[in-house]
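Incident log, structure service

09:12 report received: a user says their structure output differs between two submissions of the same chain.
09:20 pulled the input from the user's history:
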Amino acid sequence: MDLILPPACPSVLLDLEDPGDDVIARFRYQFSHVAIQALKMVIEPKWAKAIICENFEDFIIERHSGGDVRLIFRRAPAT
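09:34 re-ran on a clean worker, output below:
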């Protein structure tokens, strides 16, 4: 009987032929944290007006009151 392997899942396996895949994988922590903030905007529309990405690791949350919150992520916390 031949062993049948399921196709590799792109969320856990890097594509070695795509250099951008490795780059995006390094920013997964930052993207996840900002996604949480975006969901908070959906749940509480008055919480913030916009999320601005200055760089892959620098995000600004613009408040309706005119102020802002700057989120800067250099890397995921050590576990």
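09:41 both user submissions now match this output. Likely a transient worker issue. Closing.
09:42 reviewer note: The beta strands are 50-55, 58-62, 68-72. Residues 12 and 25 are 9 Å apart (CA to CA).
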